[in-house]
Amino acid sequence: MHESNNKHLSFVKQAKRILANKKRRKFFIRRITILACLVLVLSSALYMLFRSQPSNPEPVKDSKDITNEKSNRSITRIMPETKDNDIKTYLNDKPVVIDAGHGGIDPGSNNGDLVEKDINLDVALKIGKLLEQEGIKTILTRNDDTFMKPSEKIGFANENDACLFVSIHCNYFDDTSVNGTTTYYYPSDYKDAGNLPGKEFATMIQEALMNHIGTRDRGIAPGPKTIVLKNSKMPSALVELAFITNPSDAALLASENFRQKAAEGIAQGIKKAVEILYSKADTGSADTGTSSENNTIPQP
Q1: Which residues share a beta bridge with 243?
Q2: What is the CATH number of the domain that holds 234?
Q3: With CB atoms counted within 10 Å of each terminal CB, which end of the chain scores lower, N or C?
Q4: pLDDT tens for residues 165-195?
């Protein structure tokens, strides 16, 4: 009898515990449900609040602002909104081709560790960068230590319908006292390619170059046997920066400052020629200035 009572009491206690656990679960479920509802209501209220706030519209930008943004994103700067824009349009499909003389298996001349092909490439790359900054489309015959035959280089320029061609070189001579800077040209009027005579183009390059570097001015000279000049369909020039065989000139050619200044001078001369080409295309004539010529310069 006593044992039966104990079993009954144990069953009652167990039932009470189960009932208490159920009540606790229901209580927690109700609390979680209420909390979830509160979060949902609060989120909805915040959404409606911010949705009702007027957004601040972005200020309308004028055309100058838009142009500046495009310029900042672009490697090549856009030319100012003047006649230069017309020049840029005129040159869209007629690039300037810059040739770094020699290259690859053809080192050119040298003076110890100073090798012509390396100097030519460095200056050509600098010219290309300067012209691109002016908005002038520019192509290089090589941008690394690559070999191309002279006929292939000028063929490349002709195939790309270039408006101008400039080949960069360093001069040499057995007599190491000979120094200075020369620009060669092919004696043609180039009537089918802008009507800018090669002599006038060489003058523009030489004069601008002399305004930037401190070498002896040896003037301009014809180079009728030079392949990249005589086979050119556009105004072309071959620049002999300085004599790599002359100690003073060689020191300049080794200088980063000299190379930069030389690039700036040549780029300036090219830009002037581009403006002349545009002027001739626009009006049919232009004054290209005068030239000084020296026919006693060592030929390239």
Answers
A1: 171
A2: 3.40.630.40
A3: N
A4: 999 999 999 999 999 999 999 998 877 766 7
Distance (Å) of CA 248 to CA 114, 138, 174, 241: 13, 32, 15, 13
* Phi, psi (degrees; rounded to nearest 5) at 280: -65, -40
Over the stretch 270-280, which tens digit does the pLDDT of each residue have? 999 999 887 77
Q: Is the pTM of this model over 0.70?
A: no
Structure tokens at 300: 């390239």
Q: How many Cβ atoms are within 10 Å of 28's Cβ, its own excluded?
A: 10
Give me the torsion for CA of 84, 88, 90, 93, rounded to 10°.
170
- Outline where DSSP puts E strands in 161-291: 164-171, 181-185, 217-222, 236-243
* Bridge pairing between strands 236-243 and 181-185: antiparallel
Q: What does the pLDDT look like over 65-96, one tens digit per residue? A: 333 333 332 323 323 344 556 555 555 668 99
Same domain? For 93 and 52 the reply is no
Residue 237 in any domain: the answer is: yes
Same domain, 242 and 153: yes
Cα–Cα distances in angstroms (integers) from residue 268 to residues 9, 23, 195, 203, in the given order: 110, 92, 20, 12
176 class by beta-carbon count within 10 Å (0-12 exposed, 13-18 middle, 19+ buried)? middle
**Centroid of chain to Cα 109:** 29
